[in-house]
Amino acid sequence: MKILAVDYGDSRTGLACCDRTEYLASPIGVIHEKVMGRVLQQVAAAAEEYEVGEIVVGHPLNMNGSAGPRAKLCAQFAENLERLVNVPVRLWDERGTTVSAAGYLNDTNTRGQKRKDVIDEVAATIILESYLAYRRNHVENK
User: Fold this and answer.
1) Please, which residues bridge with residue 18 across strands?
2) 112: helix, coil or strand?
3) Rounded to an integer, what distance in angstroms lies between the CA atom of residue 80 and that of residue 134?
4) How many CB atoms lie within 10 A of CB 80?
5) What is the pTM assigned to this prediction?
6) Which of 9, 11, 13, 62 shows its CA 20 to 30 Å from the CA of 34?
């Protein structure tokens, strides 16, 4: 099944999608929009375009597992998105994904505007890879 991952942000929202075998996660773009309603519409359109069977929204919990203001906003985003699409929408713990994305971009020497342009879709890809690894290791939850 194809799965769409969303890294929701204040100014930019990264998207990634996997193939039907759930093996390869790839970045598919960034939504440059600040208004949640418009972001929701564009994510719903991407879900339809890519014919996904599930959407995973990054849930930036605090390191102690509590939900701060950002995590609550992402949960609200996921709840609103679920009303727009006909597929399940799940929150996925994304602690550390931005740090991992920054490390990857450091390793590939991606700097300046290029870095700003891709960090959100790299973070979405890392969220999706983490979710896919969980699904592979917990087949009973599929």
Assistant:
1) 25
2) helix
3) 25
4) 16
5) 0.87
6) 62
